[in-house]
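Please, structure for the following, as tokens.
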Amino acid sequence: MLNVAVPVHKKGVKSVGLLAAVALIGAALLAPPPSQGHYGPVSITHPGGGGGSVRDHRWLTVCDWQVDGHKTYIRYRTTWPSLYPDDTIFFGYAPSRGCLSGGDPTGLGVRKFTVCIQWEGCTAVKDA
């Protein structure tokens, strides 16, 4: 039997360790982001022909599906109700057969919202 010694250089061990570290960092960067959970869009449909949604507690969309002169809008409360304790904040009017989208102008985040149609009332309040 022939015994052959294979030299191991410290330099080679460092290169393998560096390659492994680079591979781990690359895998972490390519992995999908963690789930946003409850922060997806939350929608409400109004039986009078409109609807609205809130996404990420910041982005509002209101839609009016009819051309009847009744304006559709959203009323909401922020995540900091102590700053607006007695009132909800208005967002909208959607154009007839169209939608209006925009961010929460207060920058505080939407906590609860309702979709309203002029002369027809509002939906039940929903958590954003």
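The chain has a mean pLDDT of 75. The helical segments are 10-30.
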